[in-house]
Structure formats: structure tokens, C-alpha cells
Amino acid sequence: MQAIVEYQNQFSEFLNTYNVEREPKNLYQPIKYILNLGGKRLRPVLTLMTTACFDGDVDRAMDAALAVEVFHNFSLIHDDIMDAAPLRRGQETVHEKWDLNTGILSGDAMLIRAYQLFENYPPETFRELAKLFSKTALEVCEGQQYDIDFETRLQVSIPEYLKMIECKTAVLVGAAMQMGAIVANAPIEDQVRCYDFGKNLGIAFQLQDDYLDAFGNPEIFGKQVGGDILENKKTYLFLKAIENGSPEVRTELTQLFQNNALKPENKVSKTLELFVRSEANIATKAAISFYTKAAFDVLETINISGPNKQILKDFGTELMTRDV
């Protein structure tokens, strides 16, 4: 199997051929802009890698991989609008560079174009890909709504939070891998195992993302550090601090999240101090390891060669030790 960087390069070349030079320009330029902001292209790379694991034709998987990437970036445009985020991958978000209406409409167009990419497959493959994609897209919307609801709820349980990130983030990682297996005509049992591997890896990925939002380097991370704190999001860090912290920590943390009059830098620094005092940072790292191991346990049951399993395991290990 090719190295990960080769898949990234191969996908980037294919992405460059994707036609978004259409009229009206104010609809399509934002699409081109966000797709060209970069990133590691982790989800489409997983689609290509999964197809290769089953000795499938990687070129045939390109349209499915691109659909995943276009959908993912569509969701980022709308997430950034809802979060009022100023930066995405270190650059202006679409709604900041253009305006809210353009961001909403360009995002809608991206969702439609993602579906159109499945039209390049034979009818049976199209049906399976579109069915999985529709299920996944709806779950992502459900996850986003949970995320919004949790901002104003005083109490959120850890199982509720894990369900939210499963829907909002992990199911798309699982679907990206299952799509690669579908294109390769893998047995249905292995398709499901690929999905489960990706889903567990996706949960670990989101927990890591939450950790980096709080404790990462903003120049490396490419996003505003402490953004989740300023948005009063009940992340795993917050919930573990409430669960494990002393009564004083719980009271201080609750008051901080209800006080929007504090200077942003003060709110972030005081919250991070409470995360460390309650050892929520340590608990979050442990949860990342737990779901990473769960993914690797599923990986062992997939009927692919040992070397291919090792490549996917190396991919997961690298993902969970990242700084961005």
C-alpha cells in the first residue's frame, strides 16, 4: 500500500481538477476558497486507504473520497457561522470573508455537489453510497443540534456528550472508511467493521481536538485556542472537571461558564487552571487512549492483510499524537 502522504498528494491532485469555476461567482468562489484552505484531508485519505486495503481500485474511490471532503467542508462553513468563529485553519472563515448569507448558500450548494459525485458510480454502488451518506449527513445534523443545545443546558452527562461527538464527528469518519470498502466490493461484514474502526477513531479524534482547543498552540493548531470555553461548550474536559473536581472547583467552573462579562483571556486562563486542578486534562487523555484502543481492537477483526492492518494502525497512532 502507498504511504499516507502519497494518498494525500493523489487526492489533492484530484481535488484540483474539481470544477468550481462557475457562475455566479459569489456562490462558487467561497466553495473553492474553503476547499483550498488545506488540512490533512484525513477523511478522504481514509476512504482511499480502505479501498486499497481490499485491493480495490483507488482511482475509482476518488469520487467517494471527494464527496466526503466536500460534505465535511460544507459542515465546517455552517458550524463556523453558528459558532461565530473568526478563523478556520488559520484563515478567515467563509462568513467573515464574505457574509452570512453567502456562507449559508455556498454551504447548501456544497451539500448538493457532494451527492452529485455518487452519480459517477454504477447503480448498485450508487445506491449503497447514497444510503450510507444520507444516514451519516442526518446524524451530523443531529450532532450539531445536540452541541447547540448543550451550550444552554446547565447539566450534560458524559454519555450524552459522547453521543453528540459520535454523531457530529465520528460517524463521518466511519462512513468515509465504509465507503472505501463499498467501492472495493468488500464483504458486508468487513464494511461494518471498517465503519466501527472509523467511528471509534473519530471519537478519539474529537476528544483530542477538544483537548487541543484548550491546551494546544494556536499557531500550530490553526484555530483560536479556548474557543470552546468562550462558547460555554460542555466538552469532555469540562464534564470531567465537574465530575472529578472538588465542590470549590465545580462552583468556580459553573460560575465561570455563566459569566460572560469576564475578559476572554481571563475566562480561558481561569478555566484551564480548573481543568488542571481537577485532573480533567489527564482524564481526557485517558479517554483518547481508550477509544483509540477500541478502534485498534476492531481493526484486528477486519479481513485484510497484516501489513495493511499495520498501515491503518500507524495512521491511527499518528492521528492521536498530533499537535494540529
Structural topology:
Elements: H1 4-16, H2 25-35, H3 42-53, H4 62-83, E1 87-88, E2 91-92, H5 94-97, H6 100-116, H7 123-152, H8 158-183, H9 188-215, H10 218-221, H11 227-230, H12 236-244, H13 247-258, H14 264-277, H15 280-299, H16 306-320
Antiparallel strand pairs: 1-2
Helix pairs in contact: 1-3, 2-6, 3-4, 3-8, 4-6, 4-7, 4-8, 7-8, 8-9, 9-15, 12-13, 12-14, 12-15, 13-14, 15-16
Descriptive report:
The protein has a single domain, classed as Orthogonal Bundle (Farnesyl Diphosphate Synthase). The two termini are 25 Å apart. The mean pLDDT is 92. The chain has 324 residues and is mainly alpha-helical. The chain is 74% helix and 1% strand. The protein has helices at residues 4-16, 25-35, 42-53, 62-83, 94-97, 100-116, 123-152, 158-183, 188-215, 218-221, 227-230, 236-244, 247-258, 264-277, 280-299, 306-320, and strands spanning 87-88, 91-92. The longest helix has 30 residues, at 123-152. The radius of gyration is 20 Å and the shape is globular. Strand 1 (87-88) and strand 2 form a beta hairpin. The protein has a two-stranded antiparallel ribbon. The chain has 16 helices and 2 strands.
